[in-house]
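Progress against Task 2.4 (sequence-to-structure conversion) is shown through the following example record, which the project officer requested during the mid-term review.
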Amino acid sequence: MLKGSQVYLCALERDDLPYLMKWRNQTGFRKYFREYRELNSDMQNNWYEKKVLGDLGTLMFAVRDIQNDELLGCCGLCYINWVHRNSDLSLYIGKDNVYIDNLGFAEESCRLLFDYGFLELGLEKIWSELYEFDDKKITLYQKLGMQIDGTLRNQYFYNGKWWNSKILSILKDDWIGEKDHIE
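Structure tokens generated for the chain above:
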């Protein structure tokens, strides 16, 4: 368990899946994810079995409220490359349909993941691909010290239009130095 002051991150349980599926299937959320289709329970269970339980390159966590253990969302480190020591960051807060909240749950979840990834797993870089209209997450990630590494042009087709993707990353040395400035 990774414990902060507002949230803790723990293993995803099968009982969490209906909540994750409901949140992921919201039209307002789905546009931010690579999986463009409506998820059904078979798809959600398949993801859980293959990625969460069976893939050593995926470490997913439930985000829970430290006060009452309520499931708030999901986060993790995905596509971990153990040779080159980097990982994709995954995060959303589903409770109250906020995606990225203003209460600090998403921010603290990232801090816990960065500490875990850099200090315990020995990662060198944590990165994320975000669609250019994902302002909430881009703002949060930049607040935490992630930098835009580049742009993938016309990477995502949504709502009848092509959108660019932004690749953001933070290096271990950046995070260790940044922590002193943002805590």
